[in-house]
């Protein structure tokens, strides 16, 4: 009720107060950027998480140890540090490595002196990776580690007898995982995955540290130019709360639906 009344007050100001209307007009484009970054990053995080989760339950020691190393590093780093590291260290090193590879004699002999690999790290060529892409990549890496643990827990929650029964029927390990284990595991991990998506939506505000024009960054720019800090951050907080509460209601509804189906 308190949140509802506070939301009514903010909505009232948005319709009646010129300052709030100016703030809304300035920051509303950041909603699209915030949702775009969150959705793309989470799609990649789910892919990374599923592959890493499968590696974490694999009997292959190399895959298991590599996946464990990745999870330990990503979960041990603050997301802001990961964003800064990926944006200013990892991506430039990758571009420089590709540039170096493209300048090797056998590559230039095949592709020419001005091939795309040789020019990729050259800023004058206009092939720089935008900070929005860097932010998406960093968020995907961070949440891929969290998602992998959710997938691992979901897979391990399925009784071992189901895998043994599938193998006894002549299925390969991958066939059994695809047709028997994963459908049940994914059903069990949907609620925590929904909560992870909400968490990523909130953490996406950190991309403002890279200058990405999301809700937080636009709010900071407007507040710094107008000194309307209270009104600006009221609107920013209202937008985030609206999105997260609506998503939380959706996750709760999904949990109740799954319990009813069970």
Protein architecture, described:
By secondary structure, the chain is mainly α. The protein contains twelve helices and no strands. The chain has helices spanning 2-16, 18-27, 29-56, 61-76, 79-102, 105-111, 116-119, 131-156, 160-168, 173-203, 215-226, 229-261. Helix 11 (215-226) packs antiparallel against helix 12.
Strand content: under 5%
Number of strands: 0
> Could you say which overall geometry the principal axes of the C-alpha atoms support?
flat
Low-confidence stretches: none
Largest sheet, if any?
Answer: none
Helix content range: over 70%
Radius of gyration: 23 Å
Structural class: mainly alpha
The number of distinct helices, counting runs of at least 4 residues, comes to: 12
Distance between the termini: 32 Å
| Average of pLDDT | 86
Question: What is the H-and-E element order?
Answer: HHHHHHHHHHHH
Brief overview, please?
With 262 residues, the chain is mainly α. The chain has helices at 2-16, 18-27, 29-56, 61-76, 79-102, 105-111, 116-119, 131-156, 160-168, 173-203, 215-226, 229-261. It is flat.
Structural descriptors:
single chain; 262 residues; mainly alpha; 12 helices; 82% helix; 0% strand
Q: Helices, strands, pairings?
A:
Blueprint: H1 2-16, H2 18-27, H3 29-56, H4 61-76, H5 79-102, H6 105-111, H7 116-119, H8 131-156, H9 160-168, H10 173-203, H11 215-226, H12 229-261
């Amino acid at each position: 009720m308190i949140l509802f009344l506070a939301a009514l007050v903010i909505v009232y100001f948005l319709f009646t107060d010129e300052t709030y209307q100016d703030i809304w007009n300035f920051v509303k484009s950041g909603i699209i950027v915030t949702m775009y970054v969150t959705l793309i990053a989470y799609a990649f995080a789910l892919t990374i998480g599923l592959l890493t989760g499968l590696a974490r339950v694999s009997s292959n020691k190399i895959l298991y140890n590599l996946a464990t190393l990745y999870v330990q590093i990503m979960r041990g780093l603050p997301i802001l540090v990961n964003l800064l590291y990926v944006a200013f260290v990892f991506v430039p090193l990758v571009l420089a490595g590709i540039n170096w590879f493209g300048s090797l004699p056998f590559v230039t002999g095949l592709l020419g002196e001005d091939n795309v690999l040789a020019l990729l790290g050259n800023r004058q060529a206009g092939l720089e990776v935008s900070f929005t892409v860097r932010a998406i990549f960093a968020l995907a890496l961070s949440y891929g580690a969290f998602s992998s643990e959710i997938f691992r827990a979901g897979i391990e929650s399925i009784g071992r007898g189901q895998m043994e029964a599938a193998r006894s029927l002549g299925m390969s390990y991958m066939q059994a995982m695809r047709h028997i284990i994963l459908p049940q595991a994914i059903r069990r991990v949907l609620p925590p995955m929904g909560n992870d998506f909400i968490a990523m939506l909130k953490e996406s505000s950190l991309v403002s540290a890279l200058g990405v024009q999301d809700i937080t960054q636009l709010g900071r720019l407007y507040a710094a130019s107008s000194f309307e800090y209270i009104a600006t951050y009221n609107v920013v907080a209202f937008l985030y709360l609206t999105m997260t509460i609506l998503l939380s209601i959706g996750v709760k509804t999904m949990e109740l639906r799954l319990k009813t189906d069970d």
